[in-house]
Amino acid sequence: MCLAIPALVSELLPDDMAKVSLDGVTKEISIAMVEDVKPGDYVIIHVGYALSKIDADEAEKTLALLAEAGALQGAAE
């Protein structure tokens, strides 16, 4: 099963890359497929790529559900 999860963009990097924060883990991802990403935005990520932007309220609800289900534990590894 594949899982795409919301992550908060904390910093833009060169070459269409960004740093995101997910459950206390910072990762570098590609934002090449999503336009107008800026720090503070939430993006849906899958295997190191941002697939789309997501509304902050929806992202927080999704993260809360994942945490409740235990699915978030280990997902950022």
Report on the architecture of this protein:
18% of the residues lie in helices and 42% in strands. It is an alpha+beta fold and 77 residues long. The protein has a 5-stranded antiparallel sheet, with helices on one face. The chain is globular and about 35 Å long. The mean pLDDT is 89.
* Secondary-structure element pattern, one letter each: EEEEEH
How far apart the termini lie comes to 16 Å
Low-confidence stretches: none
Secondary structure category = alpha+beta
What is the overall shape? globular
Average pLDDT metric: 89
Individual helix count: 1
* Radius of gyration, taken over Cα atoms and rounded to an integer in Å: 12 Å
Helix content: 10-25%
Beta-strand share of residues: 35-45%
Highlighted features:
five-stranded antiparallel sheet, 18% helix, alpha+beta, single chain, 77 residues, globular, 1 helix
